[in-house]
Design goal:
It is globular and about 95 Å long. By secondary structure, it is of the alpha+beta class. It is 47% helix and 9% strand. The protein has an 8-stranded mixed beta sheet with strand order 1-4-3-2-5-13-7-14. A 3-stranded antiparallel beta sheet has the order 6-15-16. Among the domains are: 101 residues, no CATH class; 49 residues; 39 residues, Arc Repressor Mutant, subunit A (Orthogonal Bundle), CATH 1.10.10; 101 residues, no CATH class. The protein contains 32 helices and 18 strands.
Length: 708
């Protein structure tokens, strides 16, 4: 009876649905029917008790405070709160009570109109009197008011859209001449967004011939002569005077960083190094440090001096050969271990007549529009497989990424040196590239996600999509109002394996910034996958938020019927009677075969799902898409549960405590999610190895039977 007392209402409901099939429920034919009947009666009584409690139970002050702390820590994950912390309360009741207790309400049309009138003559957030607004909208949280203001002002800033007129193009050309480096000024005067202005300028100058590569002696002399005439501020006039086919930015950087006679080229003093370190400690941003350094040194010369003077503090690098003690780098270590860093940081004169390091090959075209900026290899790969570590990350996530990479290197990749591919929907900063490449001896490649892989397809109705985003946001569904999250899910579902930097590999390990690894791995999981015929590997399996995928299961069923599919694993995820059970493999950790996604069957499945537009109208996640695809195209023996890889993402962790002298250091503050009611691991372990044959027919028929 103690077990029944702890059953969640959802578990009770599913148990009652299968009470007539008691052999399947208990997995034994020797179970006494009398015991079964008494157990069913107890379950029914427990369900009635919980239903009654849900109707009459009021919130205590302690429960309300606990709920506030949970939302602060985990965000609005109402389903998880219901299943794990308040089993006698429904998720929608929990959400309603939270917002009622906070005194928050949704924006009414009248409130929206009042706020719009208040911001009518305001163009910048800095002009807003926040105290007046907060007093006017007392039923709104401060974050609600600020988010709404930011949204309205962003709409005003880019209120003009559509086709450019001839007058606008002419005005754009004049403004670019007057404000060569100030796109915000151009944007405000044209009443178009910065992105619109940049893209239009690039299009209008698409046929212009721009010189790249080394500057000649004649070019340097012409620039210096023009600076004497026009001064070192108006580089647009200097470009016109020299008749150069280089960009204004190229000319300015050439002068300020290399040929300016006022540059201080003397050795760095200890005081300068200390000032540099203090500034970096305060701002944690190389660009900010450069602006605040009281020095006339070349800007691109700051970073190498910082490395030579304060490398250990900058990198926070632990020396494996010194029992984990942080080590300072000598000049010899920097030369040997960081060959190629100058290329990544732009700290050497890539336009000079001769390179200071003859063995360092620097590409002439350094534009970030290329899909790759590659670190020169230091050591050869030790792992035997044709595999890669794939990471989708943004510049602002540099701190989380470094912590994750430190653990990943220490636990696994320092022994195998598999290459990394870092992908981003915007160009990686030099600071990010340096901070990452400094931490590993493996090959590292940085790639830009092409716009066609990170954009809204033409068949998606923008108006309907925005309405759906607003609706999801109003219902406080996790990432419900985020467009970038949808781009990420669609990219990971159907495009990452087609990126040029990933195209040549057979296996991949997906890693995300901020995740943690707890166990030393003394074998190669890629080799294990290949030798044992595994196609997909996971560590955590859990249930999805149902509001995010209302039609995904139905579309999957439709696809299976149209293609006459035969499956053995799909029944793990659902059945014709109850539909999708919400279980899926959490794809922020994946070790899998890239050929699984390159297969024509999966590509057809993704193309069909993408054609519905529901990656944007709903909030389909790549974890669900990958999981259902595994159910459609794989057998259970092709999917592997990596029980020996300790892993944590957000507040979910999988880690097996293997004793005081084991290979894992499990976290004390996070329980093993395998034992949580929201985990699907027990269902996975009990699912038959040969599965259930599920045949689909294009005429709508389907048949399911266990495989002997």
């Amino acid at each position: 009876m103690s077990l029944i007392q702890h059953l969640h209402p959802k578990s009770l409901y599913k148990t009652l649905l299968v009470q007539r099939s008691w052999k399947l429920f208990f997995h034994t034919s020797s179970f006494q029917r009398g015991h079964y009947l008494s157990l069913v009666e107890a379950i029914e009584k427990r369900a009635a008790d919980i239903t009654s409690a849900q109707k009459r139970q009021t919130w205590t002050k302690e429960e309300t405070e606990t709920l506030k702390e949970l939302v602060k820590k985990h965000g609005p994950r109402w389903t998880m709160f219901s299943e794990c912390y308040f089993p006698s309360r429904r998720a929608d009741y929990i959400r309603k009570h939270y917002y009622t207790s906070q005194g928050f309400t949704r924006w009414t049309p009248e409130e929206k109109e009042t706020l719009a009138r208040h911001l009518q003559d305001i163009t910048d957030l800095g002009q807003i009197d926040w105290s007046t607004l907060e007093n006017k909208f007392t039923s709104k949280a401060r974050s609600q008011v600020r988010a709404r203001c930011k949204e309205l002002l962003s709409r005003k800033a880019s209120q003009r859209s559509g086709r450019w007129t001839v007058d606008e193009v002419n005005q754009l050309c004049e403004l670019v001449k007057n404000y060569p480096d100030d796109w915000h000024a151009v944007s405000q005067k044209l009443q178009r967004s910065v992105k619109q202005c940049k893209n239009k300028w690039s299009y209008e100058n698409r046929n212009a011939i721009i010189t790249t590569g080394k500057f000649s002696d004649e070019e340097d002399k012409a620039i210096l002569k023009a600076v004497e005439t026009f001064g070192a501020t108006d580089f647009y006039k200097i470009k016109q005077a020299t008749g150069s086919s280089r960009t204004v930015m190229q000319i300015r950087d050439r002068y300020e960083s290399f040929i300016n006679p006022a540059l201080d080229r003397s050795p760095w003093s200890e005081e300068e190094k200390q000032q540099l370190f203090d500034l970096y400690t305060k701002y944690r941003n190389v660009s900010a440090v450069k602006k605040r350094m009281d020095t006339k040194r070349q800007k691109n010369g700051i970073t190498p001096s910082f490395i030579n003077g304060k490398a250990a503090e900058l990198l926070n690098r632990e020396s494996i050969g010194n029992d984990g003690v942080q080590m300072h780098f000598s000049e010899e270590q920097l030369d040997n271990e960081h060959l190629g860093l100058e290329n990544l940081l732009d700290i050497e004169d890539t336009t000079a007549k001769s390179s200071p390091k003859k063995d360092l090959q620097v590409p002439e075209n350094r534009e970030e529009t290329k899909p790759i900026v590659e670190k020169l290899p230091n050591t050869k790969q030790i792992g035997r497989e044709n595999a890669v570590i794939v990471i989708l990350v943004r510049n602002r996530e540099i701190q989380q990424m470094r912590r994750t990479l430190r653990q990943f290197e220490d636990r696994f990749n320092r022994k195998y040196k598999y290459p990394y591919v870092f992908l981003n929907d915007e160009p990686f900063s030099n600071e990010f590239k340096f901070a990452i490449t400094s931490m590993t001896e493996a090959d590292v490649k940085f790639g830009l996600v092409p716009s066609e892989m990170w954009s809204i397809p033409k068949h998606v109705n923008g108006t309907v999509m925005q309405q759906q985003l607003d609706d999801y946001a109003a219902r406080h569904i996790l990432y419900g109002g985020s467009l970038s999250y949808r781009h990420m899910c669609r990219f990971n579902s159907g495009f990452f394996y087609r990126h040029p930097l990933v195209a040549d590999y057979d296996y991949y390990w997906r890693v995300e910034p901020g995740v943690e690894f707890y166990c030393d791995l003394d074998y190669d999981p890629f080799t294990f996958m290949r030798e044992n015929g595994k196609e997909y590997g996971f560590t955590i399996t859990l249930k999805e938020i149902p509001e995010t995928i209302p039609t995904l299961w139905d579309h999957t069923m439709k696809f299976a019927h149209e293609h006459d599919l035969n499956t053995t694993l799909l029944k793990f995820f659902g059945n014709p009677q109850e539909g999708y059970n919400l279980c899926h493999f959490w794809s922020n950790f994946e070790i899998a075969s890239l050929n699984l996604w390159r297969d024509e069957r999966y590509q057809a499945y993704f193309d069909y799902l993408d054609s519905t537009g529901n990656f944007f109208y709903e909030r389909w996640g790549d974890a669900i898409v990958h999981s259902l695809a595994a159910g459609l195209f794989l057998n259970k023996n092709q999917v592997h549960f990596f029980n020996d890889i300790g892993y944590k993402h957000d507040s979910f962790a999988h880690c097996v405590d293997d004793g005081l002298f084991g290979k894992c250091m499990c976290p004390y503050d996070t329980p093993n999610f395998d034992n949580d009611p929201g985990s699907c691991l027990d269902q996975w372990k009990s699912y038959p190895e040969k599965g259930y044959r599920w045949d689909f027919r294009s005429n709508g028929e389907q048949h399911i039977w266990p495989v002997n």
